[in-house]
Write a structure and sequence with these properties.
heterodimer, A: 822 residues, alpha/beta, five-stranded mixed beta sheet, five-stranded parallel beta sheet, 64% helix, disordered C terminus, B: 149 residues, Rossmann fold, 5 strands, 38% helix, disordered N terminus
Chain lengths: 822, 149
């Protein structure tokens, strides 16, 4: 248990013993001020009378300013005395009044700082640690600006004492060390050593504590201050009890009682209390009782202050032990009252910790500055020192203004936090319960979505797989074929919906991963447009694409860009009944935008944000008319944002909408500049023919051969016969690879090569014949200008090398997948 | 489950001159087996299937195949284990191309499959053309010098 009462905090002593410049307005006034100061510690009631007399004595002063300042000084002492006599509210009023006077006539003066420090002490007495701290800070800043190091040191001790009350002894010690750095005179040092001793006792570092106490005692003796000597002896005795040395404690109490300071009943009372504790510990209850009787003689047990709290605790046990139950009960109640106060102080002090910590850091900064200044000023000339002081004065004012703003903000916040702490913690508990329920529900929903979508995909697989197989069967014709197509289309739509739902489920579990790579935009976007072109065409809508303003290579996640563009095109085609859909990609410094514009129904301004919400379409009739889950835009925006971009919309009802995917690009977005340059310089129109026309009757043969031939930038156009090949004959074909039998023999091949679509060009041919090549065949081939005949079966490598030699070199153009049309 | 339909084979398999590919599909779901069988049937890829890993491994032991298609998630032995066991064989069948077919897009799946020794991974639902492309590519890549064209 903490022992505030017995460990007398000595800041007051330090403050009052120190010499203070006299107001010297009037001899009588000056005397009264001096007497009030002298009586403050031992007899605050007396000090109060002197201070009030000083207020009256200052009244006849004719100069208003002088009178008000003199009275302010008297009021300051009056407030101190009131606070010390248990009237903090009255003290507060008087001090605030005095503060008003000082701030009117002499703002920033030392008296201004003193008053703030006193108001801080009053606030501390009233348990308003936050307010106390703020006043201490202001006082500190004023003293700092005035260069009042001694007062600065004093305020740091006050702040340290706050920490003592909050039970943060380490930090209290640190403040005291800082205080000692700022100013060192016997009065400050004696308080510091004593109070450090108190803190070390609380930390159970008894040996260190006794060292400090002995130092304090030595200083007090050299100052010939009887009060200090007695107080320190009291603290040492109390500390020895804590350390378990009862005989040492006993010796110290005896020494204390013998000291001159013990003639002061206020100080003697505490020695009696410590003696009572020694008696009680030695199980001598009657002796303890006798000492407690003397301690509390003349005290109203319902109004004692915190200095007595632990004596009340002791008394309640001692009086009960000797059978005086009613007195024991009165002390128990007093203890309870003061203990509650103490707990409240501790709690609010702790809440002020954050602000104080800020201050602490601030102080450290300034301390180092002060140290540096001290060194400089020691070697500086008087003249330069004056200038220096002026300069630092203004510099510090600026600093203080900033620090003051931050601190007052923190304090306001802390006050609000303290007031609402209880409600908040109650609300938090409810909220936490609700949140975890919600989270569970959300997780369950997401799991349900993921599982059901997954389960739906499996049978859907079967449906779509089979319709694909049926549509490949040429024997399925007419009305039956149309019905199968309808099943297939419906199944495809359903799969898109299920995929959307899976995507959302994945995103809700945070499953968007972005994997940027150097991407060729043209083939990517062309591929997506291709997917929608036929559907759009079937509805009479044109799909146009403009990639002229766009870099060829960009760093992005191609998978996500494809998915977003797909969704935007899907929407555009879905909601457009006539006109066109345009995709425009452009890249400029740091940004890639892919805009999809339609001439569709448009969106009213008030719905523009709603459309990005999951499961939202502008109205239900829209959904009935156009279908879809309405998830596409929500997904697109989520994906875009995952890449650091966004999907934006501009729209006008009846005219259409423009959805734009905007993505940030690194300044050096190509990653392969020379390749990009090459790609840009390639004019699409003059690209050399690089495609391969493959004629092979067997679908599997076509597939396998297409794979063998496939190379970057080469499209393999597969046909089952020479007749089928006629429709693809043209400028893009670089070479024909044909199974001679599949092409209808040499005759069939001859007809193919004579087609006007070749524009008179002699297209090189690789002819494949089954088995050995006979002389007749060679002759026929030669007649058609065919020099390359390969005998089947052959290896893939043979076919590949034969064809590769006939295709012009790749000019660094687009990457195309080998397309083998079945 | 019995399936009475006939695969619509466009090219008669008995054509001696046609390219021959024989695939083994290991998959516990009967509908998926039928879909893949009929898809392969469209281009005339010969097909056999098994409903689980051990049965599939036994089929591979006794037959001649050009490629193995295997489902990833199967009760008992999964696709990765099937792949490992094939790769652990001491005969030339250890080098047969293996394609894993799965609906599982979770992170690390592709890595796990490739590390176990699979050549490629196809996502369900498998469309016909990518399936055929993949089979042809893998069969060709595994035997670039075999005279199969």
């Amino acid at each position: 248990m903490r022992d505030l009462s017995r460990l007398l905090i000595l800041v007051w002593l330090a403050a009052w013993v120190a010499p203070v410049p006299a107001a010297a307005v009037d001899a009588r006034f000056g005397d009264l001020i001096g007497q009030s100061r002298a009586a403050m510690l031992a007899d605050p009631a007396q000090a109060l009378r002197f201070a009030q007399a000083a207020v009256t004595a200052a009244a006849p002063i004719t100069d208003t300013r002088e009178r008000d300042l003199a009275q302010a000084q008297a009021h300051w002492l009056e407030a101190e005395a009131l606070n010390r006599t248990g009237k903090p509210d009255e003290a507060s009023r008087v001090a605030e009044h005095a503060l008003g006077l000082v701030e009117t006539y002499d703002a920033g003066s030392k008296l201004n700082g003193d008053l703030l420090a006193t108001i801080g002490q009053i606030a501390r007495t009233k348990g308003d640690v936050v307010a106390a701290l703020e006043r201490y800070q202001r006082a500190f800043h004023i003293f700092e600006a005035k260069g009042e190091r001694r007062s600065q040191a004093k305020v740091l001790q006050y702040i340290g004492t706050l920490y003592f009350e909050a039970g943060d002894y380490e930090r209290m010690l640190k403040y005291y060390a800082d205080s000692a750095e700022l100013f060192d005179d016997p009065a400050i040092r004696v308080a510091a050593r004593n109070n450090q001793g108190d803190a070390l006792i609380e930390l159970k570092r008894y040996e260190e504590a006794f060292v400090r106490y002995r130092q304090a005692l030595e200083i007090a003796r050299s100052m010939e201050s009887d009060d200090l000597v007695t107080s320190i002896l009291t603290n040492m005795a109390s500390a020895q009890i804590r350390a378990g040395n009862l005989s040492a404690a006993q010796r110290l109490v005896a020494e204390g009682l013998a000291s001159r300071g013990a003639q002061d009943p206020y100080l003697a009372a505490f020695l009696r209390g410590v003696q009572a504790e020694i008696d009680w510990t030695r199980q001598n209850a009657p002796a303890a009782r006798a000492n407690l009787d003397r301690l509390f003689k003349g005290h109203d047990l319902t109004t004692t202050n915190h200095e007595y709290v632990d004596f009340h605790d002791l008394a309640s046990k001692v009086y009960a032990a000797v059978g005086d139950y009613s007195t024991a009960l009165a002390h128990a109640r007093a203890y309870q009252r003061l203990d509650e106060e103490r707990r409240a102080v501790m709690a609010s002090t702790n809440s002020a910790l954050m602000a104080a910590q800020f201050d602490f850091a601030n102080q450290e900064l300034k301390l180092s500055r002060v140290r540096a200044k001290k060194l400089e000023s020691d070697v500086a000339l008087e003249k330069s020192r004056e200038r220096y002081n002026r300069l630092t004065f203004y510099g510090l004012i600026a600093l203080l203004l900033i620090a003051g703003l931050v601190v007052s903000g923190l304090i306001k916040a802390l006050r609000a936090i303290r007031d609402s702490r209880n409600e908040v913690s109650r609300a938090n508990m409810t909220l936490q319960a609700t949140n975890s329920e919600l989270e569970r529900a959300l997780a369950a929903k997401t799991r349900f979505l993921a599982t059901t979508s997954h389960e739906i995909r499996t049978p859907l697989n079967g449906i779509l797989g089979m319709t694909q197989v049926l549509l490949c069967d040429t024997s399925v014709t007419g009305a039956v074929r149309e019905r199968v197509k309808t099943v297939h289309a419906a199944g495809t739509t359903m799969r898109a919906l299920v995929d959307d739902i899976l995507d959302v489920a994945k995103m809700e579990t945070g499953g968007v991963t972005v994997e940027p790579e150097i991407t060729r935009l043209r083939p990517l976007l062309t591929g997506v447009v291709d997917l929608w072109e036929s559907q759009a065409a079937a509805r009479g809508i044109a799909v146009r694409m403009d990639l002229s303003g766009c870099a060829e290579l960009v760093l992005c996640d191609p998978r996500l860009v494809r998915q977003i563009t797909f969704n935007l095109l899907s929407n555009a085609v879905k909601f457009t009944q006539q006109g066109e859909v345009r995709l425009v990609a452009s890249s400029k410094a740091g940004q890639l935008s892919i805009a999809v514009a339609d001439t569709g129904i448009g969106i009213a301004p008030e719905h523009l944000e709603d459309i990005f919400k999951s499961f939202h379409q502008v109205d239900n009739s829209t959904q009935r008319q156009f279908g879809g889950t309405g998830l596409g835009l929500a997904i697109s925006r989520t994906l875009a944002r995952a890449m650091g971009g966004d999907v934006e919309v501009a729209s006008e009802v009846g005219k259409g909408s423009i959805f734009t995917l905007v993505l940030p690009l690194a300044e050096d977005d190509t990653g392969a500049p020379e390749l990009a340059e090459e790609a840009r310089s390639e004019p699409a129109a003059s690209a050399p023919a690089r495609d391969v026309l493959l004629i092979e009757a067997s679908p599997l043969g076509r597939n396998v051969m297409a794979k063998a031939i496939a190379a970057e930038g080469v499209a393999v156009v597969g046909c089952e016969s020479a007749e089928a090949a006629a429709s693809v004959a043209g400028d893009t074909i670089a070479v024909i690879v044909t199974d001679v039998a599949s092409a209808g023999g040499w005759e069939g091949l001859s007809a193919l090569l004579a087609l006007p679509a070749w524009s008179g060009r002699t297209v090189p041919v690789v002819a494949l014949v089954q088995g050995a090549i006979d002389a007749a065949g060679e002759a026929e081939a030669a007649a058609l200008g065919i020099t390359r005949i390969l005998s089947r079966p052959m290896s893939a490598a043979t076919l590949r090398s034969a064809v590769a030699g006939m295709i012009p070199a790749l000019p660094g153009a687009e990457l195309q997948q080998g397309k083998a049309a079945a | 489950m019995t399936y009475q339909g006939q695969p619509p084979a466009a090219t008669p398999p008995e054509d001696a001159q046609a390219i021959q590919i024989k695939a083994l599909y290991i998959e516990d779901d009967p509908i998926n087996r039928l879909v893949v069988r009929d898809m392969l049937g469209v281009v005339g890829i010969c097909y056999e299937d098994s409903a689980d890993g051990p049965e599939g491994l036994a089929k591979l032991d006794s037959g001649e195949f050009d490629i193995v298609l295997v489902d990833l998630r199967m009760p008992g032995m999964d696709g990765i284990e099937v792949t490992r066991q094939i790769r652990a064989r001491r005969d030339e069948k250890a080098n047969i191309p293996i394609v894993v077919i799965t609906a599982d897009t979770g992170p690390g799946i592709q890595h796990d499959c490739l590390e176990a020794g699979a050549q490629d991974l196809l996502l369900k639902p498998v469309a016909m053309q990518p399936l055929l492309d993949t089979i042809c590519l893998q069969v060709l890549s595994s035997n670039p010098d075999m005279e199969m064209i």
